[in-house]
Every structure is written in structure tokens, then in C-alpha cells.
Amino acid sequence: MSVAVRSSRATTSNTLTAGKLPKGAPWGLLIVSWAIFVGIFLLLKASGTTADFNIVGALFFGTILFDVLIVVISMVVEGGRKAKDRLVTSLVTTAFIVTLLPLVSLIYTVISRGVARFDANYFSESMRNVIGAGGGALHAIVGTLEITAFAALISIPIGLLTSIYLVEYGRGRLARAITFFVDVMTGIPSIVAGLFAFALFSLFLGPAFRAGVVGSIALSVLMIPVVVRSSEEILKIVPNELREASFALGVPKWLTILKIVLPTSIAGLTTGVMLAISRVIGETAPLLLTTGFTTSMNYDLFNDRMMTLPVFVYTQYANQGPDATPFVERAWTGALVLILIVMALNLLARLIGKIFSPKLSRR
Amino acid sequence: MTATAERPTPTAPRPKATVRLGDRVFSLATVLSGSLILLVLVLVALFLIVQSIPALFAKPGEIPNQATNFWTYVGPLVFGTVWAAILALIIATPLSLGIALFISHYAPRRIAAVLGYIIDLLAAVPSVVFGLWGVLVLAPFIQPFYNTLVDHVGWIPLFAGPVSGTGKTILTAAIVLAVMCLPIMTAVMREIFLQAPVLHEEAALALGATRWEMIRMAVLPFARSGIVSAVMLGLGRALGETLAIAIVLSPATVVNVFLLTSQNPNTIAANIALQFNEAQGVGLNTLIASGLILFVITLLVNMAARFVVNRRKAFSGAN
């Protein structure tokens, strides 16, 4: 009796699922192959062949083992076409996981090595008269904030006005040219922007001139196109009915833009601007050329060399003292602070965009 | 436009269009700032050219590295720049294709947006941090693999020895570069894949195609130009990347294709970053002139990429 029931159920399920792997099979296989290599690497560590347990290597080789296994098994059970499909699926998934590995490794390293000097001294001292251990990056943090703020001060009005031109006024050849070259400008190498700012100032003030403001000019060359592109996208989605209603009431165009279009899109504009800031705040190459580096505090944007956080990280690594440890530690902490600033800007920007954006649908 | 309306004629009295000062000023300001952007681009080229002229006509002996003239100085650097960028793209193109497909067609809908955000996080990491990671984490990690490669397949010219003991080779630099230009390439490809006509995809699936066959027949042909331009945008990024290369690579003035030795061709951008603060006189002009070459190369690549992309749809990496 029970035998008959089971066999009938087997035949009914056969018509649909015969020659197919069960649904959870790939995931199970992936976990099994990861487990195998985690086991192998643990054994290697236990036997003393490798010094550390290498989680990255384990996941990497585990994923490759999974790719091979799934194709072979599928070839046997499901046939050629399905096996090819499985192959591509696993390759695509592998590509994703392989890309996550550097990100995970990078974030893990920056945090684990950065916390060593993540202390009060780091945020309250400069590097003046510091030879070995100790010291801090206050001068670099102040420099970064000042230079980026001034760059934003230049870029935001120009970028916003340009995007308003492109959306509200621009027709014809000039608008097309601006759109095209703004796109092209997003691809200017940052070091070329630095060279431009340097060349501009050295024409008037000589090649030895270094100041924070030169760095701000270089950064704004990089920042303007980003601001233009993102604000343009945002201004485009402001509904035309709002403009027409305003015109119908006799409001002039410039007031319509100021009082209707901009307030409607202010959340999106803020998001775009903050993302643009977060993009340039980590730039190193242009600042290395234009603001130089120093160990002392300098609050004056228009005079003398100024340290910035990315350049601080670079110089700490590049010009190590006889005992390298404190220098490398300071570099890692600088990297951690930099990433924290960028992430905070990113998150804040997205939050602002989410919370304050006008609700278009009535719900 | 009200600003340009003509005066009403006496025969046909019409309400006079008001010429508002605010409108004039505002539209003029927007036009000016728009034109300013074009002006900046021209100025960038102009200043670089002006500062490059002394280097272009320099006599032998004035240029660093015992180069006889500017072109023999910049030649190896151009080679290094292009070579490193191509290596990076060879690594990054298949990966970003995979990631873009994974996010657009394979990942569950609910988490696809989150995964896209995670990849965008990679773009938020400053290049100096990538450099630090590349030299202090990746290079020591990968060096044993280089040993193995040279020992076993060293007869292939690419992998010829002697192996670098530090792992600071052009292959390591290219891997770091690849990770850095992945986000922009993925973003463009993802956008294009998502635009593939859904009806075509559903038709393919309805005819019994597997998911891969559906992608090959309905998605990839549609996205071909998008893929090309994504690769070119990535190339633009890779060509101009500075600090990661300057930190990771151990450079020499050579032209070779050996991936694993400690004698690596340097790139233009990294060379500028390393030499700039010690350079003076014609040496400085030489560096600026090499920057001009880099500017021209990336400008051409980017314009080509934008040309291909704009034929399809307005999409830029900036949003």
C-alpha cells in the first residue's frame, strides 16, 4: 500500500522535476565547497605551513571549486544546455564574490590597523616637531575641510547655474556642447586638474607658489561636472505642470525657477552636491602638486603650504622614518578617518534624498 | 521670451511685454556659468600647452633621465600608462560584465539595489587608500603566487623572471587599478542591461530558452554599444589613475612586458606625482608636457566613449 503511494508520487513528480537538480542544490554546494576549503586552510594553519588563517584564500578557492562541481554535476544530471546555463550563473556569481573580496579585505584592514592610532592625540595634535611615534593629523583634517569647503564654494554656484541653464534655458548648439564636454570633463584625470591649477598660478606667482586655494581650484575643476550632471538629472524630473501653473499666475521665469523649481528639488540637489563633495574629498594627486605638504598647522587658505588628509596618508607611507611602525600606523588611521568622512557624507546624502524629497504620488 | 519681445506698434496696440531686470540677469548668469565650463576646458589645454613649450624644444641634456629629447622621455611612460590600463581592463571587463549581469538579471530583486550600492561603495574609497591596501596587503599576499608562476610557467615571456621579491609589480598595480575602475564600468553596464526590452526577454524564455540563452539572445546584442563605452570609460579612469600606481609600483625607465619582475614601466600620472616636488626648470616643464600628453589621450578616449553612449541615451558616470 505505502509502496504504491510512494511510487505514484514519484512518477507524478518525475514529469516535472526529472533530470533537474533540487532547488537549493547550488547554495548547498557553495556552502559545502567553502567549508571544504576553510577546513583545508585551518588544517594548513594547524600544521604550521601558513602563519595565518587565510579566509580570503579559502573563500576564493572554495568558490572556484563550486564552479567546477556545479558544472560537472549539472552536466551529468541535467544535460548540456542546462549545464551551460549553470556555468554562466556560477561564473556571474563568482565575479560578484571575487569583487567583494578586495572590498571586504580593504575595509577589514583599514579598520583593524587604523584603530591603533584612533585616539584623542590624533585629532588634537599636528606633526610639528614629531620625529618618531606620537603626533596627529589635526593639521591635515583642518586642511582637507578648508580646501574642500572652498572648492565646494566655487563649484556649487557654477554647477547649479549651469544645470539650470541646461534644463530651463539651454537650446541649440551651446547647450549640446556644454552637455557633451561636461561628460568629457568627468573623465579628466585628477592629476591633470592639479597640473592646470598649478600652471595657472605659477604663471602669475612663480612655480614655487603653494597654497590651499590652488588645491581648491584643482578640486573644483573635478567637482563642477559632477555637480552639473547630478543637478541636471534632478531638475529634469521637476514636473512641468508646476512651472506652467506659476507662469499662468504671471510669475516671471527667474522667480519661477528660484521659488518653484529649486525648492521642489532641493533634497535631490543637496544629495548630488554632497556626493560630489565626497568624491573630491579623497583626491590626492592634485593636492600633492598644488598645496604641497607641511608638518605644521596652517589655517590660511591663501598663504603657504597646507596639509590635507589624503596627502598626509601618502607622505606618512612614502617618507617613513628609521622606525616605520608609527608612520604606517598614522597612515592607516588617516585612511580610516578619510573613509569614515566619505561614508558619512554618502550616507547623509542618501538619507537627505530619501527623507526630504517631495512625495509625487498622493498616498 | 519676454526679454526679447519687440515694442508694440501704434497701429496694433498690444500689452507691452515687460522686460524684467531679474530675468535678464538670471538667464545671463546661467549662460555665463555654462560657458565658463567650456572656457575652463580650453584653459586647461591652453595652460598645459604654454607650460609645455620649453620642454618640447629642450636641448639634449636638459630633460631628466638622460633622454635626448622630450619624445624619448615620454615614450616609455606612454607605453607604461597604456600597458597598465590594458592589463587592468583585461581583469576588470569580465568581472564587471559578471557583476552587472548578476545585479540586473540574476540577483533576487529585493537585494539587487543593495548589491548595487555595495559596488558603489568601492567608488567611494579614496585612491590613496587603495594604494596603501595594494602595497601593504595585496602585494605580500600575492607574491608567493608570483613565485609559483615564475617557477612553473616562466618560459612564457609575460611571466619571465627574475620574480620581484616585494610583489610591487605591474600586475599588482593592474589588479588594484581593475578594482578601482570596476564601479564605473559596472554602473554603465547595469544601466544598459536594465534597459533591454523586457518583451524580448520574456519571449525568449517562453520559447524555452535557459536564462543564459535568453541573455545571449535578448540582452547582450542590445547592450553591445553600452558595453563598449563602459570599457572605454573604465579605460579613461585607468589611464589617469595616479596615487595607487605611484604607491604600488616599483618603477624603472624601461619598456617591457614582463608582469612579475621588479623592473616595471612607469605611468605618466605616477611619474608626475613622484617627481613633481623635486622638479625644477625644464624638468618641471617636461612633467607638465607629459601631463598634456595624458590629457590628450584621456580626452580622446572619453570623447569616443561619450560619442558611443550618447547615440544610445543620455547616461553618464556622474549620476
In short:
Chain A is built from 13 helices and no strands. Chain A has helices at residues 2-17, 25-46, 55-78, 80-114, 138-169, 172-185, 190-205, 212-236, 240-248, 253-280, 285-290, 309-318, 324-356.
Protein architecture, described:
The complex is a heterodimer of chains A (363) and B (319). Helix content of chain A is 74%, strand content 0%. Chain A contains 13 helices and no strands. The longest helix of chain A is centred in the first third of the chain and has 35 residues, at 80-114. The model of chain A is unreliable at 1-12 (pLDDT under 50). Chain B is mostly helical. Chain B has one domain (19-312): MetI-like (MetI-like fold, Orthogonal Bundle). Chain B is 71% helix and 1% strand. Chain B has ten helices and two strands; from the N terminus they run ααααααααββαα. Chain B has a two-stranded parallel sheet. In chain B, α9 (268-275) packs antiparallel against α10 (282-312). Residues 1-5 and 314-319 of chain B have low confidence and may be disordered.
Q: Give the CATH level 1 class of chain B.
A: Mainly Alpha
Number of strands of chain A: 0
Structural class of chain A: mainly alpha
Helix content percent band of chain A: over 70%
**Count of beta strands of chain B:** 2
Radius of gyration of chain A, taken over Cα atoms and rounded to an integer in Å: 29 Å
| Sheet with most strands of chain B | 2 strands, parallel
The DSSP helix count of chain B reads 10
Helix content of chain B: over 70%
Note the main attributes of this structure:
heterodimer, A: 363 residues, mainly alpha, flat, B: 319 residues, MetI-like fold, two-stranded parallel ribbon, 10 helices, 2 strands, disordered N terminus, disordered C terminus, MetI-like (chain A), transmembrane (chain A), Phosphate_PstA (chain A)
